[in-house]
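Predict the 3D structure for this chain.
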Amino acid sequence: MILPPQPCEEKEVRIFLVEDTQDVGEAICRRFQQTGHTVDWVADGVSASEILSFTDYDLIILDVMLPGMDGFAVLKALRQAGSGVPVLVLTARSEIDDRVSALDLGADDYLVKPFDFRELEARARVLLRRRSGGEATNLLVCGDVSLDRTNRSVRVGKREVQLKRREMTLLEVLASRPGKVFSKEELLDRLFGFDEAAGANAIELYVGRLRKKLEGAQTRIVTLRGVGYQLVSDAGA
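Done. Predicted structure below.
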């Protein structure tokens, strides 16, 4: 039986944490909540490996010493399945052979415990930038709408718009690739955590709220019935 991930608050990108030490797991969740990320958390390797077989994430933070199935085995199975998701390995083992083994199995980076959480966050940022094609900017712009990821602020022209958390996440997903059509399922996956149940009309609700707050902008959310939603700009049309 797979134990459900222990949820942390959902936000910007999805991180999968595999860590069996309660206080360390809670601390990592808190840190990434504060910087605007979704974190799903499990505490054993078997559950982690099974969940990763059917769920995609932007980053995996993987402890080595785990009950049931160690982190090396989880990593090996992940790479054998063809997944290229960035993996940051956490290990209490400082021996060079263990670090080399992690990298040889496909880890993108590693940290030796105990570590400074500022370094963990910095290494995660590097891997997430690499995952998104190396884009380092924190400013998303579509038409006259701009979203500052660092300050979590949105402007329509010179007017600042106040958005709630999920409205901000929805805009961020759409603005990350203007013109791309995102299905309702993709947006549900981004706005809600692993174990949160969302009704069929949840996305319509948040799209409606966001549209209202962007009224007057040259940028709009277009509904393609039965397909999904896209962000487009009317500037210069």
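The longest strand covers residues 219-224.
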